[in-house]
Amino acid sequence: MTLRDVLLPILCCAALVLLVGAGDGSLRDGGAVLVADKTDDVVFVVDAQTYAVEDTVAVGRGPHEVAAHPALGRAYVANYEGEGTLSILDLDTRTEVERVDLSPYSRPHGITVHPNGESVYVTVEASQAVIEVDAETGEVQRALKTQQEGSHMLGLSADGGRLYTTNLGSGTASVLDLRDGSVVQHLQTGEGTEGIALTPDGGELWVSNRAEDTVTIIDTETLETLDTIDVSGFPLRVYMTSDGTQALVSCARAGEVAFVDVEQRAVVTRVATGNAPVGVQITPDDRRAFVGNMRGGTVTVLDLDDRSVLRQIDLGTGPDGMAFVSAQ
Q1: 10 Å Cβ neighbour count for 53?
Q2: What is the number of alpha carbons within 13 Å of residue 157 lying toward its C-beta?
Q3: In 3D, which of 306, 311, 305, 266 has the Cα closest to residue 291?
Q4: What's the rounded Cα separation, in Å, for the pair 214 and 194?
Q5: Which residues, including other chains, have CB under 8 Å from residue 134's CB and lie 6 or more apart?
Q6: How would you label 91-108 residue by residue, b for 16+ Cβ within 10 Å and e otherwise?
Q7: 19: nearest Cα among 296, 261, 264, 285
Q8: For residues 117 and 7, what is the distance between their CA atoms, to the nearest angstrom?
Q9: How crowded is residue 179: how many other Cβ atoms within 10 Å of its Cβ?
Q10: Which of 227, 239, 303 is nearest to 266 (CA)?
């Protein structure tokens, strides 16, 4: 039995917390935030406590989203532009160990790692599909065809059985069964459906409709729409705190993050962050959030207790997708 065989079952349930082990030159005890800069073609490693940039890792063209997995000690970056590639990063050495050509699939964007550590799922917008990639080799195992325009961001159920994707051009969210690769249902949500998040209990799916300034809430059991709430300012992304009490919605045109009370399904306040906030990373303790201001070359750190700005970090020119990694 290998070390990986021992670790995977133990860490599987914690996969969404995105922890990685420490090693020589690895992440500090306080953890770090990986920030994909889609203009500079790099991933920044930012110390989560001091906010200092610890490293810069060159990746493929136009990195939009990044995901990490605890047992593997790796991060995966979807490089959207040009050739369309997947960068595999070693989190101990902070290097790109492989860059995988995903052709004939193109425009890779949303990305998530299965809790079992065996597969990485990547939306490929121009191919109307989600591809399943072997986490070790980077080889494409299968394509889950959505047949929807602009399959964009991903949500994964805690048990790893269902995958949800927003379809930007079709105004829908697709429910995919990972056991047989079938489409369970396409859900009508709203024009410009983009952001996606599941409540921690898995009972609700929240998706943002940027062209309608709304967030649609769906029951994951019945697949019926429960509610639609107004969130103005071009809502691009939705993120949930791990305790399930708050949803953060990045509103790019408004330059703000909206704080939504999940139980009440209402916006309680909005905080100005910078020019075109998109990617958000909430820390595992639900106390802070890092916000990438895509056109401002900054990352804003928010205090989630009093909903205020803690720090503004100058970082590259196009910070966007993020992942949190924490040393043991």
Answers
A1: 17
A2: 17
A3: 311
A4: 11
A5: 118, 119, 120, 140, 141
A6: bbebebeebbebeebebb
A7: 285
A8: 10
A9: 9
A10: 227
Which pLDDT score, from 0 to 100, does residue 82 have? 87
**Is CATH 1.20.1250.10 what the domain over 3-232 is classified as, yes or no?**
no
Q: CB under 8 Å to 15, separation ≥6 — which residues?
A: 69, 70, 71, 113, 114, 115, 117
Q: Which two tokens stand for residue 284?
A: 């595992």
Rg (CA), the chain: 18
- Is the whole-model pTM more than 0.70? yes
Q: Give the pLDDT confidence of 32-46 residue by residue, as tens digits.
A: 999 999 999 999 999
Asked if 317 and 294 count as a contact pair (C-beta separation under 8 A), the reply is: no
Tokens standing for 267? Answer: 């916006």
What's the rounded Cα separation, in Å, for the pair 186 and 166?
A: 10
**Do 193 and 166 touch, CB atoms closer than 8 A?**
yes
Question: Tell me, what amino acid is at 217?
Answer: I
Spatial contact of 257 and 301, defined as CB atoms under 8 Å apart = no
Q: Tell me: the pLDDT tens digits for 287-305?
A: 999 999 999 899 999 999 9
Assess contact for 252 and 233: CB atoms under 8 A: yes
Burial class (CB in 10 A: 0-12, 13-18, 19+), 54: middle
pLDDT digits (tens, 9 = 90+) for 217-255: 999 999 999 999 999 999 999 999 999 999 999 999 999
DSSP track, 165-176:
EEETTTTEEEEE
Tracing tokens 């105004």 back to the chain, one arrives at 171
Domain parsing of the chain, residue ranges: 3-232
Taking alpha carbons only, the member of 325, 290, 283 closest to residue 22 is 325
Q: Which amino acid, residue 150?
A: G
β partners of residue 208: 215
Report the Cα–Cα distance between both ends of the chain, in Å, rounded.
Answer: 22
Would you call 258 exposed, middle or buried from its count of C-beta atoms within 10 A (0-12, 13-18, 19+)?
buried
For the chain, what's the residue count? 328
Tokens of 74: 């790796």
